[in-house]
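Support request, please re-run this one:
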Amino acid sequence: MGAVARPFIFAWHFLTTIPLSRVHHEPTAPELAASMAWYPVVGLLIGGGLVVADMALQVVFDGIVVNALLIVLLVLLTRGLHQDGLADTLDGLAGGCTSAERLSIMRDPQVGALGATGLFLSLLLRYAGLMVLPHELRVSALCCMPAVGRWAMVTSAWVSPYARAEGGLAAPFLTHLSWRHVLVATLLVAMGLGVGFGIVTSFVVMMAGVVVVLIGWWGCRRWFGGITGDTLGAMNEVIEILFLLSIPLLFRFA
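Re-run finished. Output below.
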């Protein structure tokens, strides 16, 4: 495979549970950084899978059940990676008084009360967002939602320093991450949004995403001293949920 295919496969394998190749192992740090440029594409493909599943499930089940099953499918496709990051981040915020204490708590595999509560509420809000999606926006929203969340991860990783001096899961990805990777990811997600919702809505969503990323950057610097893999997962969850909840509002007032 070429220089383009390898980073895409690394992105796919990291973000999903579906194997594409058993050949591409031991990626270099530059390849891991380059793989982040493909995150929105992987997100669009995940979203496309949700659209197909949505159409198939609606033949058999009521819409209420379909929305719940879509969330289950999304968690299974991504092995709960981002939900775990959200829970760990909330536990760190709740239990630590300093950045070092919060980072230490986030390494604990057990989920605390606030992490569990936050995870439950995030799933509840995601379900509510799916319930209020207008039928005419459903395909575009399901397709673009994972792409927007993964674009936010790339952007957050670029604007924020890594918090752990000893390294961690996200460290190899960020060593060689550059503005070129972020630009490619931004153009890809903007194209997806433009096709799905039009230029105006695409621009509004991107600008709102930038604001949320900057708020996340400020919070991570203040509370953790930078980003970690967990905070990037939490950012994905926050962005996806806000996207689902805001899309109907944007079209209501457009």
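The chain has a mean pLDDT of 90. The chain has one domain: 5-243.
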